[in-house]
Write a structure and sequence with these properties.
Structural class: alpha+beta
CATH class of the largest domain: Mainly Alpha
Oligomer: single chain
Strand order of the largest sheet: 1-2-3-5-4
Radius of gyration: 17 Å
CATH topology of the largest domain: Transferase(Phosphotransferase), domain 1
Strand content: 15-25%
Number of strands: 8
Number of helices: 4
CATH architecture of the largest domain: Orthogonal Bundle
Number of domains: 2
Helix content: 25-40%
Largest sheet: 5 strands, antiparallel
Length: 201
């Protein structure tokens, strides 16, 4: 067993790599969290993530989900790769972001908005195939199978997040969000900055 990603705070799962039946799997595990976090937050986010993986089953660029291993643990396919966050600007080509954009479109076509599309959640293999992971905060489609107003807003947020990363790594001008989405986005960024300033050091 090896440590893969130690939880950044008490609400995050521990993520590690284990070998099961002769193959590596990623273990996303809330069992080490407090009872309150484990029972309420952990169960909720794992259930949501499991639902998303079922919705995205068969989409190229999404790791397979092998299901639960206990009430607070999810098993996922291990992909030999590096997160985008481990690269520096200029080290990733335009083709990678074209593939990422295609993958994001396929995810959105299934009615799923990722919401939390960070650089650490975009994986790149040696052959420059692109995978996306971590759907704990995703917005699921409605009963019709389509995204509702909330989902469509967060899909715009997903696309903007990817556009920001494209600009960062290809050394292009930052994209500027426009319209109602732009105003909402800027207000959210201001709130986030304010909360950082108020956080005890």
């Amino acid at each position: 067993m090896s440590r893969f990603d130690q939880a950044r705070n008490i609400t995050k799962a521990d993520v590690r790599i284990e070998e099961r039946d002769g193959k590596k799997v990623v273990v996303k595990d809330y069992s080490g969290r407090s009872r309150l976090v484990r029972f309420f937050y952990g169960r909720f986010t794992l259930r949501r993530e499991f639902q998303v993986y079922r919705l995205l089953e068969g989409v190229s660029g999404i790791p397979r989900c092998y299901g639960y291993d206990g009430a607070y643990t999810l098993l996922l396919e291990y992909i030999q790769s590096r997160p985008l966050s481990s690269f520096k600007p200029g080290q990733v080509g335009e083709a990678v972001f074209d593939k990422a954009a295609g993958l994001l479109s396929r995810i959105h076509e299934r009615g799923v908005a990722i919401v939390d599309l960070h650089r650490s959640n975009i994986l790149i293999t040696e052959t420059e195939d692109v995978y996306m992971i971590d759907f704990a905060h995703a917005v699921l489609p409605g009963r019709s199978g389509r995204a509702g107003p909330c989902g469509r807003f967060f899909m715009k947020l997903d696309r903007h997040a990817l556009a920001r990363n494209r600009a960062r790594y290809l050394k292009l001008p930052k994209p500027v969000p426009e319209g109602v989405f732009g105003l909402t986005y800027k207000a959210g960024r201001l709130c986030k900055s304010f909360m950082r300033l108020c956080k005890p050091k």
